[in-house]
Amino acid sequence: MKKTFDQTGFEEQIAQWRTFILERRAVDAPDAEELEDHLRSQIADLVKVGLSDDEAFLVAVKRIGSQDALSREFARVHSSRLWKQLVLTGDAKDDSRPSPRREFWVVTCLAVLAAIAVKVPTLFGLTLADDPGFYLRNAGLLVLPMVTAYFVWKRTRVSRATGIGLLSGRMIGIVVGAFVVGAIVANAYPFEAGGSTEFLTALHLPIVLWLVMGIAYVGGEWRSGPKRMDFIRFTGEWAIYMSLIALGGGVLTALTVGTFNLLNVDATIFTQDWLLPCGAAGAAVVAAWLVEAKQGVIENMAPVLTRVFTPLFTLLLLALLGTTLWNMLDVSLDRDALIVVDALLVFVLGLVVYTVSARTGSDKVLFIDRVQFTLVITAWALDGLVLAATLARISEWGWSANRTAALGVNLVILANLSWTAWVSHVMLHNNCPFARLERFQTWYVPVYLVWATAVVVVLPPLFSFS
Amino acid sequence: MYIPKDLVAASAAPLVLGILAEGESYGYAIVKRVRDLSDGEIEWTDGLLYPLLHRLEDLEHVEGTWGTAENGRKRKYYRITPKGRESLAEHRRQWQAVVGALRGTWGDVREMANERSRGWQYGWRLNPIGGLAT
């Protein structure tokens, strides 16, 4: 009886030592296996000459060397291990997750489906050249269902094993329903071809669908603030992976056209009609998968970029505000200028959100917090000017779909910036927890959904689809 | 007797290659063999043998294969390659040259013994704790 107890204690000690050794990145699982074999052989020999299990264990561990010395030597031989590698098809260590190989095939199928989906309308005679409006309105509807399907597949699979974060049938129903409604609105509304309501729908419908996809991403727990933050992080990383894939795609396209040119074959039609649209659609799914796979393996890039660009954008906004004020508050900004400034403000909001998303536990006020506060205040002032200009245009020219949408975006941004500025002010001076800002930003996400939905569903009939 | 780290490190690769030239072996057995061969004078930090084996593996001087030990656990066995034998021969020439040169400077055995005892005294005076440890 006593022997078995000792045996389990001994095994536990060895398991602990193994975990300890594996903590260092330079030592991988086979190395640990090899070292463990060494440790066990040494212990067996020491026990044979009369030491107890515990004594033998201590001596053997001492002889094998300190964790620091070991990992330093291993790192010298395997320096590549210090670069975190993204392993996409390894062995699944965690039983609750789908096997990576299986996931790879699911992703491949969905990516191919997305690539086919963008070409299906051509079967019905709807080509990009003949009806660009159709593709504009339906871009999100053709691609995002596959990305959503990936998350539905993944989240329901994970939860079956763990019982946590179950994506219920009701949630799936809501997501599917939203996509169906989106499809009806985008195609049943009698849009005037090339009109501004059509353009606004094309711009806002993907935002609606993306946020709806978020419900699948968070496994149905859309009420949870941290889960919403995860989705915000995912969005940023997805955008970065998409741009990286786009870079590679650009090289592929250029080489395709270039090499076939040498053979006197014109490949531009192929690249324009097939390679680019199908590639982009497939890339949307692949990028989602890459972000999922890399989670926790590689640093998040979006917060790093925001760190770099927050000070630069602060300078830009200060210069912009200064110039506007210098020109004696000339608020008759014209339409194009308003659009550019609106885009800038959306970007600033993104900078704020991603800086918040990377905020670690510490409540110490950092330099970047002060820079961000300046950025928020400047953006707030600029937004006020733009709002005034938009209102001036509305009073002068009356309501139009574009002006209403611009007004709404400005109000949505202004409300967010006002509260962000207030919370940041309190944080900088009273040392309230930084988590408050994060809570606010995650709480605000549904506002985007409501506004974008309103633009897609309500605005077109209001302005008779002009 | 204390053998400085540098000397241990320099002799590690030729020792491992030499032991593997006797036949296939694995980490723990190699460490034991080193102890036997040096009458316990050469003390390695056991774990550091493995990075060395892996480096020799990368250089294709040895090749490793996973097998099963007599206790049923997985164990990695190493075998010397022809390239490893060449390297071993090279090491041998280098060490022979070094040892030959040292012999030349040491002269006869009596002088060598004197040198050794003086060394001991210096050791004591300069570093009593280190001296006690050895």
What is the N-to-C order of secondary-structure elements of chain A (H for helix, E for strand)? HHHHHHHHHHHHHHHHH
Order of helices and strands of chain B: HEHHEEHHH
**Cα-based radius of gyration of chain A, to the nearest Å:** 28 Å
Structural class of chain A: mainly alpha
Q: Output the strand order for the largest sheet of chain B.
A: 1-3-2
Helix content of chain A: over 70%
Residue-averaged pLDDT of chain A, rounded? Answer: 83
- Structural Rg of chain B: 18 Å
Q: Low-confidence parts of chain A lasting 5 or more residues at pLDDT below 50?
A: 1-5, 90-95
- Straight-line distance between termini of chain B: 6 Å
Cα shape of chain B = globular
Number of helices of chain A: 17
Note the overall shape of chain A: globular
How many beta-strand segments of chain B?
A: 3
Averaged pLDDT of chain B, please?
Answer: 80
Oligomer: heterodimer
Report on this structure.
The complex is a heterodimer of chains A (466) and B (134). Chain A is built from 17 helices and no strands. Chain A has helices spanning 2-22, 29-48, 53-64, 67-77, 100-117, 120-123, 132-162, 169-188, 196-217, 225-262, 268-294, 301-326, 335-357, 367-397, 401-430, 435-457, 459-462. Chain A is globular and about 100 Å long. Mean pLDDT of chain A is 83; it is low at 1-5 and 90-95. Chain B is mostly helical and 134 residues long. In chain B, a hairpin with a 5-residue loop joins strand 2 (62-68) and strand 3 (74-80). Chain B starts with a helix and ends with a helix. The interface between A and B is medium-sized, with 22 and 21 residues.
